[in-house]
Design goal:
299 residues, 13 helices, MetI-like_sf
């Protein structure tokens, strides 16, 4: 038994070599596209004056959640500036936003497919289980093999790592729509596509947004780990702090990650449940509009 060995690693290595030789054009295209997206968004976030970015983030927090969120955003983002972690934070934010958008673009259609097709769901669920049990560092290995060192393998690994909750929550949200509501749409002659767009997706939106929230959180977690393969940002600073035993740098970069994580979590949570935040600017404008309509009707 000691001499029995299945060379799975060698098989995978051979498969990777074949892919690199025969599908190199695809990896080159992905590398160009991801580099372009990252460079454009990073340049925008870094070149704009920090106060402009801070005010914009604060406005988003006020619009979606509350004025307290806006004040907290100004304070915490100014805190990042004073720690000299602003550029690294914007690089991380760019990586997270692009990775999250790509992950959602992939995850939502796959989740819809899983919700509407039992055979697809049977195949997809074990794959998601496998992806979620795989250690996060392992995702870096194939990414580096195909894309080398830099921001692109970090982005690819982040997208893959963040995918599962988006798929799961989309499937859960659509399957959770009341069957009687769907049957009512069918009784009026609505096509499956019309039911999906007009009934299932709107009712499943809070659940899907909860999934997107998890996608963003996982993307941020992986974006930090991506610093190990050369992705710029707070993750790179954390890796440098570990390598050089630089405690101040590690603490400051870690606090930057926490601040960005809390901000993104609060904002995305409000997107899916806007009615739960009466102090938001949107809620205030809605109340004012309702009062004006009531006054106009009374007159």
């Amino acid at each position: 038994m000691e001499n029995i060995r299945i060379p799975i690693g060698a098989w995978v290595d051979s498969a990777f070599d074949w892919l690199k030789e025969n599908v190199a054009w695809f990896f080159d295209a992905v590398t160009w596209l991801f580099n372009f997206l990252i460079e454009v968004l990073t340049d925008v976030l870094v070149d704009l004056h920090p106060l402009v970015i801070i005010l914009l983030l604060a406005l988003i927090g006020w619009v979606l959640r509350s004025w307290q969120m806006a004040v907290g955003t100004v304070i915490t983002m100014f805190f990042i500036m004073t720690m000299d972690q602003w550029v690294a934070s914007m690089q991380t934010l760019a990586l997270v936003l692009i990775a999250a958008v790509i992950a959602v673009i992939i995850a939502v259609p796959v989740g819809i497919l899983a919700a509407r097709n039992e055979a697809a769901s049977t195949v997809i669920k074990p794959i998601l289980d496998f992806m979620q049990t795989m250690p996060s560092f392992v995702y870096l290995i194939p990414a580096v093999t195909f894309f080398g060192i830099g921001v692109v393998p970090g982005l690819v690994a982040t997208v893959i790592f963040a995918l599962p909750p988006g798929v799961r929550f989309t499937e859960l949200g659509i399957r959770g729509v009341d069957s009687e509501t769907v049957e009512a749409g069918q009784s009026f002659g609505a096509t499956p596509g019309q039911i999906l767009r007009g009934v299932q997706l709107p009712l499943a939106t809070p659940t899907i947004m909860a999934g997107i929230n998890q996608v963003i959180m996982l993307a941020l977690a992986m974006a930090v780990i991506a610093g190990m393969v050369g992705a710029d940002g707070l993750g790179k600073n954390v890796v440098e702090a570990i390598a050089t035993q630089n405690l101040p740098l590690g603490v400051e970069a870690g606090l930057g990650v926490v601040i960005i994580a809390v901000y993104l979590d609060r904002v995305t949570a409000a997107l899916g449940n806007a009615k739960d935040y009466p102090r938001s600017l949107v809620a205030g404008l809605r109340r004012r509009s309702a009062k004006n309509k009531t006054a106009a009707a009374a007159a």
